[in-house]
Amino acid sequence: MISEKMRPLVENNSAIRAMFEEGKKLAALYGRENVYDFSLGNPNVPAPSAVNKAILDIVTEEETTMVHGYMSNAGYEDVRDAIAQSLNRRFGTHFRLENILMTVGAASGMNVILKTILNPGDEVIVFAPYFMEYGSYVRNYDGVLSVVPPDTETFQPDLTEFERRITEKTKAVIINTPNNPTGVIYSSETLEKLSEIMRGKEKEYGKSIVLISDEPYRELAYDGAEVPYVTPFYHNTMVCYSYSKSLSLPGERIGYLVIPDEVDDFQAVAAAAAIANRVLGCVNAPSLMQRVIMRCVDEQVNVDAYNQNRELLYGRLKEYGFTCIKPQGAFYLFMKAPVDDKEFCQFCKEHLVLLVPGSSFACPGYVRIAYCVSYDQILRSLPAFEAIAKAYGLGGNKEGDA
Amino acid sequence: MISEKMRPLVENNSAIRAMFEEGKKLAALYGRENVYDFSLGNPNVPAPSAVNKAILDIVTEEETTMVHGYMSNAGYEDVRDAIAQSLNRRFGTHFRLENILMTVGAASGMNVILKTILNPGDEVIVFAPYFMEYGSYVRNYDGVLSVVPPDTETFQPDLTEFERRITEKTKAVIINTPNNPTGVIYSSETLEKLSEIMRGKEKEYGKSIVLISDEPYRELAYDGAEVPYVTPFYHNTMVCYSYSKSLSLPGERIGYLVIPDEVDDFQAVAAAAAIANRVLGCVNAPSLMQRVIMRCVDEQVNVDAYNQNRELLYGRLKEYGFTCIKPQGAFYLFMKAPVDDKEFCQFCKEHLVLLVPGSSFACPGYVRIAYCVSYDQILRSLPAFEAIAKAYGLGGNKEGDA
Lengths: 402, 402
Fold this sequence. Notes:
- Two copies of one chain form a homodimer.
- Chain A has 14 helices and twelve strands.
- Chain A has helices spanning about 5-30, 50-60, 65, 75-90, 105-115, 135-140, 160-165, 190-205, 245, 265-280, 285-295, 305-320, 340-350, 375-390; strands spanning about 35, 100-105, 125, 145-150, 170-175, 210-215, 235-240, 255-260, 330-335, 355, 355, 365-370.
- Chain A has a seven-stranded mixed β-sheet with strand order 2-8-7-6-5-3-4, with helices on both faces. A three-stranded antiparallel β-sheet of chain A has the order 9-12-11, covered by helices on one side.
- In chain A, α2 (about 50-60) packs across α11 (about 285-295), α4 packs parallel to α11 (about 285-295) and α12 runs parallel beside α14.
- The interface between A and B is large, with 80 and 80 residues.
- Chains A, B: Its cofactor is pyridoxal 5'-phosphate.
- Chains A, B: Belongs to the class-I pyridoxal-phosphate-dependent aminotransferase family.
């Protein structure tokens, strides 16, 4: 019954599902509060109170058939305009409502872009470590993923290798900053160099190469770190945004695409993207949530809560002797595994600590710790992390640990 | 920039878009209330008051990170269970939550099924007239649409031609009852015959053939007409349902799939469908709306309002001399065009009446009138319909009309 394309996804999925089921079993055996689940990117910080207030106000103030009704496949015009104006205020851009297309989250936005531009065999470049789902999105449209190996010193993109990988078949490049799973942010200098390379290759091959910027973590940056807006760097940039993390609404599936005027064939691309949104079956982004965004366009979650988690976890892991870079943004910490990452995750699970192996992000030898959990869960998990470190003989430079 | 697959969609879309823009122009010129737009299936009857009450209650009573958070890709288990129980109560079925997968409306549900089962070149049979988007959904997965020509006497499926069209490449059959655009309902007898043919062909070719029942209009049936539940007739049936019409929530994108235990390879199909829901970018159906369905599972819109529209419009159109069958369900009336359907739509537009040509449903010579508008709009439009009838010399059997 299952299509050829879905078969490997089902087989591959069962391993993850088995892990998930094991986690549930552990929780049943030892009690939920004694299992330290750092595997999922499901925000623990609640949506700002303005979100629920907006829902209540909309339901009582706005006209019901409009609130729950169809609108243009691209979304309500007033919502798109509000988002364009907000971006312009914050980043000095010059977007109009025609540059904004409301989507069922960023994942759907990525599918919309890839359906719009990919022909079978087109190559899409990603930088390891990368969010594994990108591969599925690209293969949905018979594209081919081309992976730039990780620079495990800095986890910044290896631009020399990147330039080498661009071929005449390259149609798109995906970046994700702040990054899942590393938490690094690409600097203006990095974006400038990356753009220069892409401009050069566009000229060399006489074709358009699209830069897809997947930005669900844009608002989660720490220590005043700047997350440069990408569209001014490179003309063929399209942005996938989601409110899943910035407003803690991952289940609501609300986000948008930015397709700037500067994109080649802008009119056709914008029209095709709206149609792709429809024929992929989304039709439009959920209507009530669009109305909510209209009223909450400049709101954001309490980033301090994530920062407290980051400081506590990073500080203690270093203290216990683990190796990791300090995340600048997002809510993930990418830590070196003292042994094979899958073996390490297995060992951690025995200590009731659930992590995701770096292999799942094309970067073996590391593990991802999602710290979008309660501060209390991190506190309670620390003895387990310490015991794990000791078991591997880490923390040798402190008294009596080795 | 645009992919080969999207190009015809963009070109084809521009004609519809031009018509839509023309409608807006007409409204600006003559006033919105003097333009009679029957082109769209956007419900005018508001959602039951229980829906907005449920939203208010959920936001104040349920835990925010749960209401707006991620859940399983298949949806909240309690919501899926509530739907299964409701179906069992109403149709004597035996579904469990594992048979229900929450989707971003029925359009997305169709995409999920087709992605799950189609290999390139697989044929999918539809009965004309049919909702044009089916073709796009099938082509998304490189399937090939096979169209059974319409029986314009009854608009019931032509089962002789259907049997002839099933080949060893046939993977699925799509039915839509109550039907868009004709309003007909398939009887138990029809479903039984159709199922018999499919069982025979499954045996003949030694393969599974899936019956996809697209049911957004299930709850809209008039004069006590029965809409038989399809799964008991045929083992490989999957149902695409949406609350767009039954609760007037088309913008919210909330619906579900039913994948019964009897489907071949049930476990694999159900697992693959949940993954397809994720990798197509939906991830899950909008979370707050899932919670709303939990509380409104047995609610429905005021069907009487649509029935009043139906009676008024059908009665008058017949009186003016038009030819049409009386719709048994849904909120469309499929009327014979006295001349070429596109030419007729053009003429109607000059009388400020906006209709969709039957050609857009693979059934030229007819027009679709969406009567999900206000009763008042229908009343106001009657002189225009009468004038149009007179212009074509219809209604000849009444005094002095010919």
